[in-house]
Specification:
It is a single chain. The chain folds into 2 domains: 2-92, no CATH class; 98-200, SH3 type barrels, CATH 2.30.30.760. Helices cover 23% and strands 34% of the residues. The protein has 5 helices and 16 strands. The chain has helices spanning 2-13, 38-41, 65-74, 101-108, 188-200, and strands at 21-22, 24-25, 30-31, 35-37, 42-43, 52-55, 60-64, 77-78, 87-92, 128-130, 135-142, 145-153, 157-158, 162-167, 173-180, 183-186. The strands form 6 sheets. A 5-stranded mixed beta barrel has the order 11-12-14-15-16. Strands 3-9-7 form a 3-stranded mixed β-sheet. A two-stranded parallel sheet has the order 1-8. It starts with a helix and ends with a helix. 39% of the residues are buried. Residues 126-183 form the Flagella basal body P-ring formation protein FlgA SAF domain.
Length: 201
């Protein structure tokens, strides 16, 4: 990881002339080749769009917001992080198209239920794996079909706890279960994750 960060910083140092000014974080950042660039993350990246800031080895990669701000600034970009995000998730663009996740899930099986209630117990800070305003990737799997969408956490959650995640494109709130930092599951997998967590206690 250190080598990756140092490599990204070095690449950004050579891109210092890319003065594109203020930029806006994309609602659902994705990449299609495993190389995450500033253009994958931000609208208005200009000539700094091709600067690589990380390499995604799995279905997603999570960046600390402060880390992104620093790398963007070195490339001449100004991201103010107006909503106070703590983490940003970038996922594989080969997954289901973001705008079609809800419709595709409905075709494959029951859609994730809308959040109706807050978690029963607010997790202690040390137990949290997701905090309010974190960007979270929610996976929905049924019949061998896996769909995913990225949204903003509406509260805090420890592993195995319910978390409401708001889809930034549709405005809908999905009732999910936290399974890892920046990751949650909905649908049948959510019940399984809650059951396993309770059994481990």
């Amino acid at each position: 990881m250190r080598a990756l960060i140092f490599g990204a910083v070095a690449a950004l140092a050579f891109a210092g002339s890319a003065m594109a000014g203020p930029v806006t974080l994309k609602a659902n950042p994705v990449d299609d080749d495993g190389r995450v660039t500033l253009g994958d993350l931000f609208d208005g990246a200009g000539s700094a769009a091709n600067v690589v800031v990380g390499n995604r080895a799995g279905p997603s990669i999570v960046f600390e917001a402060g880390q992104l701000q620093s790398m963007a600034r070195q490339a001449g970009l100004d991201w103010a992080n107006p909503t106070g995000l703590r983490r940003v998730v970038v996922r594989n663009a080969a997954m289901a198209p973001q705008g079609a996740v809800t419709q595709a899930a409905a075709a494959a099986g029951p859609a994730p239920a809308l959040a109706r209630a807050a978690p029963v117990r607010a997790p202690a800070y040390a137990d949290r794996i997701i905090s309010r305003n974190d960007m979270v990737e929610v996976a929905y799997e049924v019949g061998g079909v896996r769909l995913a969408i990225t949204g903003r956490a509406e509260g805090n959650a420890a592993e195995g706890q319910r978390i409401a995640v708001r889809n930034l494109q549709s405005g809908r709130t999905i009732d999910a279960v936290a399974v890892a930092p920046g990751q949650a599951v909905a649908g049948p997998a959510a019940q399984s994750a809650r059951t396993q967590q309770f059994a481990a206690r």
